[in-house]
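#help-structures

NK: newbie question. if I give both the sequence and a SMILES, will the prediction place the ligand too? trying with zinc ion
OV: yes, paste both and it writes out the complex. here, I ran yours:
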Amino acid sequence: MDRDPSEDDSVADLSLEAESPLAPPAELLEQLPSYDRLLQGDRQQIFFPPLEAPGRPQEQRPWSSFLEHRTPVVTEEEAREALLSFVSSKCCYGSAAAGSLVIRELRQRTLCRYRLETFSESRISEWTFQPFTNHPVDGPQRGAFPSLWDVKVQVPPMFQEDTRKFQVPHSSSVKECHKCHGRGRYKCSGCHGAGVVRCPSCSGARRKAKQSRRCQLCAGSGRRRCSTCSGRGSKTCATCKGEKKLLHFIQLVIMWKNSLFEFVSEHQLGCPGELLARARGENLFKDENSTVYPIVDFPLRDISLASQRGIAEHSAALASRARILQQRQTIELIPLTEVHYWYQGKTSVYYIYGTDHQVYVVNYPERYCCGCTIV
Ligand SMILES: [Zn+2]
Ligand SMILES: [Zn+2]
Ligand SMILES: [Zn+2]
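OV: that's the protein plus ligand as structure tokens.
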């Protein structure tokens, strides 16, 4: 995928020169028979990547580290400390309750979070044009243009999303501007080329109705300079920017995207899933390659199934429209503690989640309103 600057097929980066796609003139199509397929239908087509080589065999993964893993147990003091520090970060929460509530029970779980990230590339081609300024034209006379997946470009760093536009080598040709017919200017539609329009105040009568003095706006001439063309009667062609000619070429649009699949193992505690999805975890397993293979033998069956499901979902979603460049699957351990407490005759719960002991409180008993938004 590396771009070799000495190569004839090197491409110009057009990221800054986006122009709306437009069908090329018919005579251009006749000159480019080998791209007929590309120009069917809506004149925009996704090219399918070549099939990948068959997969490597499944390897055995050592899960002993998981089985031996002991999540540090959250003690009562740690549970209270986490709550106090959470409460002190909120202006509306009083710390007296956190300091004096009675902790009755700590229910601890270690959850597994599986993530699959897939970095893929998709390519779209479309005809486009830009004003022609006298630079060398890389047209069909310099060779046949490559098929879209053969155009070599610099791939951004893995998992870094980007969209860029390139000019397909040897696809360019210069044509007279179809909008102004090669004149670089066209007649102003505001004044039909006259440079002046009828005075809007007196409607050309030179004086206003029932008034004897002449119209002040047009000084009695009945006409005003056309504001659309500043009195010139013509306008610079917006299509060719006055250059009279257009460079038509096939533009290759490449999109690099990340897809994410995420699964957190069952826990039967009331902590919201979206908090656990972004909780800080302890990395247990990481596998990164151009293609990763489903985990089949993880001690938690849910996680193995999630891996199989995630990989199947990503390949089904991407197979027909993109090429997978890199995949990364991870398994992390997320500690979660449900703290049952008693305060002023009532019992309730809060949660401590993640390796950094984040807190989620359902109904904190000591809240004030100081005018801020309670979240
Ligand atoms: Zn005008
Ligand atoms: Zn007037
Ligand atoms: Zn023009």
